[in-house]
Protein: Condensation domain-containing protein
Organism: Phytohabitans suffuscus
Amino acid sequence: MTGHVRALSTGQRAMWALHRIAPESATSNVVTAAIAAPPLDTGILRAAYGAVQRRHDLLRSTFHAADPGPVRRVAPSGPGAVEIRDLGAVDDTRLHALIREVGSAPLRLAEDGPARVVLLRRPHDCALVVVVHHIATDGLSQWVLWRDLSEAYQTIHSGGTVDWPPLPAFDDFVARERALLDGPRGAELRAHWERTAAGATAATLPTDRPRPARRSYRGAAVSRPVPDRLAERVRARAAAAGVTPFSVLLGVYEGLLYRYTGQAEFTVGCPVSLRRGRALREAVGLLVNMVVLRSSFTPATTFAEAFAAAQRQVTGGLANAAYPFALVQPPGPDREPLVRATFTMLARQPGDTLSDGDHGFAGHHMRRLAMPWDEGQFDIAATVREGLDRSLSVEFSYDTDLFDEATVSRLLGHFLGLLGAACAAPDRPVSRASMVDEAERRALLALGSAV
């Protein structure tokens, strides 16, 4: 092994432990992809990706077991490795299947590092697929990576030289985290999360199959757009209640879990950003942490009360978010998890180079592809995505060991139904609101009449 040795953050060590448990799993692959027309220039693309690797040291790292703990080794420069596959005139169905294959192949962290970039070429267009292991990235990092790749491609195409200012190395973040944990603030945060976790039970949905003794970390996802009128009602209801739209969505999600599980008290996980300060906003790295939210319901709890409770939970979680979730819930196959269901919301960043339009990649038309990720890490992981046009979509990723697609699709439909009920009548008890839409109601009535 060659290169400079760097320590891992607590979150990275947890990801390494998961990788060691299931090295052939792709559950930690973060996949982004776009269709480009006309096809990208392969020489420029390789040079551009090499520039991105030089800027972000995690992309030129490999990860290794060591004593007393895992380390990463940073190479002096990135090789700009982009795999080119010429497909010929395959149709869109075959192209999308090949994109999924690229995203679902496991990453060999010790041999090849945390990233894979593949260009799938057809005669008149191409698909650029970027796969990065979660040990080296998060949702915002993927946006940063594509932005930098686009800027480098444009610069090189125009005959210029990529000259970015230096970024603080990720190990600066690791050092600050270590100092926090070793100091008095770390002790305060540890005490807070110990109180939060004491006696807590994860929201546990009824499953289609018994929970296996050992997880395979295989997953899938279903998604639906939120009707535009409902999205506007969410924002209006949030404004009227004096809470954020996120709190409305989270409160309804927790209400959905209450209705499905019958648990009066339970925990939900909520990923939050650790990008404190301007420098880290430009970095590619694992800069998110899971905070544990404790929720409680009674038969009389109204949607308005659920919104307000969700806002309090998030505010408290953010104030204590610097303490790593891996220390609250140490990884291990035999531990009862503190979180089985998660909820997050992602906003499309201004200048997002994965949006539709001609931009960035020297005039190529780029079209984003919806690529779910983090499938199978939790029983259910709900993600609300917000577009620059204020549109909303909801994705439920799930563990395929536990659930069938039809079950999760119905769960997602019930979430949207409950969201509509919450916006229409916020003073109604969550326990008494209808979750089914008119089509499902008719189907249920027809089923009853056939008995």
User: Anything to note?
Assistant: The mean pLDDT is 89. The first strand starts at residue 4 and ends at 7. The two ends are 68 Å apart (CA to CA). The first helix runs from residue 10 to 21.
